[in-house]
């Protein structure tokens, strides 16, 4: 498979809704942090090419052709710059192309990233823009993404006996992890949010909600209103601005950049049918295909993956992905979440970053941002959210676009 | 540079404005023609991956995530499918990624194509959509693409003493070539158009225009109205729908697909600054960088390229590209066109397909469609527009996005 590839550095902007930051600012933030992370330093002139993933800034900020725009902003002219688009998996696809570009021998040093600027539009405009990634039939049937994932959740509940309580397990865990992620859009636990709301109610002198547990709070339709049943507000990832990037290098050059390279051990990508034509509603064919390709390349199986960032655009998605990746048997992902297996101290930590739900989901940035979390965990630089007491060697990411039309799986390794 | 890559087959839809055809239909047309062109036949299951270039169907037909949509339409699920976007160079970038994917050893057989569905929107909407590929500064200054290229033409005229007559030489040649291209959107020579208009005027009983030469016709502002001086209507490529695709295979497998493989000998890509920051207005830095990279990989120089398809989105662009590619010295491209050197029977035939001007310019399809013309010429299957009496071995394509923000150059070879 050509030459091997390693990650020499990584950086990301803050994720959130920023009225004073645009895609260029955010990408430059990510780039500067990446530069600082390359411990032996490097000359930006060494960068041979740029790959960027972006979903739909064409619509959100009325600018396309972002490869050229960012190459100019980063001082990379006349180096080649290519944008990939695969809906919410856009930068995971960019990462894959960057790997191919090095593996083929064409380039030695490639900058890869992703970004999205979503907050300058109304929620309605963003929802409509994102819906362009679903199939023409889904759109014509009136589905937006919360609706589509709501339908999949309903099918999952019916088939496997899960309930909204299982979705809450996912949400509570994501918020618990995000407390320790200084880049995350939402950095409070559900309990913190609950106490804050309670205090606010007390201060107003009105009735004080009787929530005792986090699940009481999430079950309260005032506090956690339905969006598209059973997807409530706290089941949905937010509208976010942000950027993330990585420096990829040919493996044989890695130690001239850093003492702690992280190696790309496996990459896989698959495509899936839209929901109206899918074989089933509780699993993504594209993820199964991508995982198989990545595991085969890496020479590992699901049991070898110690932890992962998966594409929890909605809480139900996290459960389904952990099954499609083979971490848990079909129909048991919700039980694994309930048992705490996916917590930071569980046997298979999932979304230690807080996931898309809490870290934020600037759609074009997400794929690379997921990899940055795995990179941090493998380097033991994840701070207070570091997976405890583990010799971490292999982690994975999984990103989907649309309703599973595209999926990319990446396996990273520390040696 | 990894494994070598060859073209095993190619096909394109008709180019034009089709109220009854959408991107899927057009891409399937291209795919079916491509299948027929693979003379030893092949099983579509052999396709390992799909790359597609598209500029902005997000806006034009309110659908993004086209990799997945087309993978499904072509029966390729669950194979990976990736969309690239580099404005009007989008499918030239897809081609390059497909080459990397094979060169790296990841895949053996890759389908690559491009498409655009533009005609369902008003001219104003299309012009505005395309303008998203120019720099934020150009857009803010009120420039659309005819305006930008008009400004560059003005600078070229001033610097090198060219006139509108030189632009007419390009236009007349493009129309002469397109007469023999059954896929072209405009298949009549300027003389044929002129005679037809004259007959129409006679039939109406009104005054009959006194045009004698084609240049008389093109100089008549009634017949050829100004769009953004000196760009008149016949200097501008049209709004088009269309699709094009190719089957790329690892070179060592090529003869199991076809007796006449065409080899990818060089690929190059570059980025350029927007006009407000460009070093000059009469040359594209991105083209010079891309050409240098492609020539170096191929081990050739400009003199070795026997013919080329270049990105004549506007007539002035063709002149500038033939200089940036090194075919003619800076400031002499207009004279070369006037002397007939770029005609089919000239020493350096350019745009034998009729170019974007006459073949049509469905922006996302253009890069691969240009390569298809070179593929035909090298295989001696270009019919009546075949370059006469030449043993053709090496041809090139050049595609730009925006105002030169992106450029890709590809060198193809018959052995």
Task: Give keywords.
homodimer, 415 residues, alpha/beta, Peroxisomal Thiolase, Chain A, domain 1, 9-stranded mixed beta sheet, two-stranded antiparallel ribbon, 11 strands, 38% helix, 17% strand
Give a structural overview.
- 2 copies of one chain form a homodimer.
- The first copy, chain A, is α/β, with parallel strands linked by helices and 415 residues long.
- Helix content of chain A is 38%, strand content 17%.
- The first copy, chain A, has helices at residues 23-37, 57-60, 66-73, 90-103, 123-131, 136-140, 145-160, 164-178, 190-204, 214-219, 285-298, 315-324, 333-338, 355-359, 366-379; strands spanning 5-12, 49-53, 81-85, 109-117, 226-228, 231-232, 241-250, 262-271, 307-309, 394-401, 406-413.
- In chain A, strand 5 and strand 6 form a beta hairpin.
- In chain A, helix 8 (164-178) packs across helix 12 (315-324).
- At the A-B interface, helix 3, strand 3, helix 4, strand 8 and helix 11 of A face helix 3, strand 3, helix 4, strand 8 and helix 11 of B.
